[in-house]
Write a structure and sequence with these properties.
The chain is mainly alpha-helical. It starts with a helix and ends with a helix. It has helices at about 5-30, 40-75, 80-110, 115-150, 155-165.
Length: about 170
């Protein structure tokens, strides 16, 4: 996991790219009635503007709230590291999904003014289960694995474990 502001920014960029791209592909698939190869290319232009929105929302609004709430949920010293990861992941989805669904409603779907609330609620309800499972089973593990490899986190953990066994 990130240990300083630069690592936090890099981790957030990676997570935003994987989450937002996956969710854009999902929403396009819903619109066209099924997954086809063209969806993967069709999602890229949306990623170009939804990605920065997600990054700013996460860094400025969601992460500070999630950090405080996660500590309240699992305590400052959870029994397992996964407890904190799970809390952060679930709370992030809980906040980011409605916020990004609102952005998509206003920027992409652009319903008539009288339908904005209904469209936002429907978009959130359709996105929430996918965002949860995408975060827990794809984006989270992939990004944590790649990030850990980039910053040498797994190597440090393996070295520490090897030292404990040697003693």
């Amino acid at each position: 996991m990130p240990k300083n502001r630069v690592q936090t920014a890099i981790f957030t960029i990676m997570m935003v790219l994987v989450m937002v791209y996956g969710m854009i592909c999902y929403n396009i698939t819903l619109e066209v009635g099924g997954l086809s190869n063209f969806v993967f290319l069709e999602a890229l232009p949306e990623l170009a503007f939804m990605g920065p929105i997600a990054f700013l929302l996460d860094m400025l609004v969601v992460s500070p709230i999630v950090s405080r709430r996660a500590v309240k949920v699992v305590g400052p010293h959870p029994q397992t590291p996964f407890a904190m990861v799970a809390a952060i992941s679930a709370l992030s989805v809980q906040l980011m999904c409605p916020l990004m669904s609102l952005a998509a409603t206003l920027i992409i779907k652009r319903p008539a003014n009288v339908d904005i609330l209904a469209t936002w609620i429907q978009t959130t309800v359709l996105n929430l289960p996918m965002a949860f499972f995408w975060q827990f089973f794809v984006a989270g593990p992939v990004v944590r694995g790649v990030f850990g490899a980039l910053v040498g986190e797994k190597r440090e953990a393996a070295d520490s474990a090897a030292e404990q066994v040697a003693q």
